[in-house]
Specification:
alpha+beta, Glutaredoxin, Antioxidant, Horf6, Chain A, domain 2, five-stranded mixed sheet, three-stranded antiparallel sheet
Length: 214
């Protein structure tokens, strides 16, 4: 019986796997992004329709990410020359400039470290994986998509802002939270904390479920 192998998977709330790689903007390494948030995302291949729509989406959302102190970094198992030709084609055919670097990962070293190679989905291409790394180099979120379906880029903008809001205010955010919406107050851990809620002015549906405005 053949040995079953599993991809190495990074872990949430642990340091993101280190990388140093050649990109379309020169060599980039994880430490270059300390002090900023980073969205690292992979795509199966250059010059493919779904990937093209995603890159156009990320490019159009780039200013929104920048306002959140967040950089973008793409990756696929293609050469720098392929990346450069593809981004040029996107500019010529769709009139969209790709403002962020794309990693050349011919060795699959970065893709393997981040669990982007998924046996059963593809053994030679990175699946659509997205990683949100905070300004301290900690992996905060990761999302995997199948090869056949494109991601919703606005969701990643929303998720970065939700994570930053939760950190800044020591709260959680409910389903579909958008900036300006009420946030969720963490559940009380003691009877005293539960009693204090009656005087805190929170909007409580039950003892464990309270919201407040920021």
């Amino acid at each position: 019986m053949a040995e079953i192998t599993h991809p190495v998977m990074p872990q949430l709330n642990k340091p993101a796997p280190f990388f140093e790689a050649k990109t379309t903007h020169g060599v980039r390494k994880l430490d270059d992004y300390k002090g900023k948030w980073l969205v690292l995302f992979s795509h199966p291949a250059d010059f493919t329709p779904v990937c093209t729509t995603e890159f156009i989406g990320f490019a159009k959302a780039y200013p929104a990410f920048q306002k959140l102190n967040t950089d973008l970094l793409g990756l696929s198992i293609d050469s720098i020359y392929s990346h450069l030709a593809w981004t040029r084609a996107i500019k010529e055919k769709f009139d969209v400039e790709i403002p962020f670097p794309i990693i050349e990962d011919l060795s699959m070293r970065v893709a393997s470290a981040y669990g982007m190679i998924q046996p059963g989905a593809s053994d030679t291409s990175a699946v659509r994986a997205t990683f949100i790394i905070d300004d301290k180099g900690i992996l905060r979120a990761m999302v995997y998509y199948p090869m056949s379906n494109g991601r919703s880029i606005p969701e990643f903008v929303r998720l970065v802002e939700a994570l930053q809001t939760a950190d800044r205010n020591k709260v959680a955010t409910p389903e579909g939270w958008q900036p300006g919406d009420k946030v969720i107050v963490p559940p009380p851990q003691t009877a005293a904390q539960m009693a204090e809620r009656a005087e805190a002015g929170f909007e409580c549906t039950d003892w464990y479920f309270c919201k407040r405005s920021l």
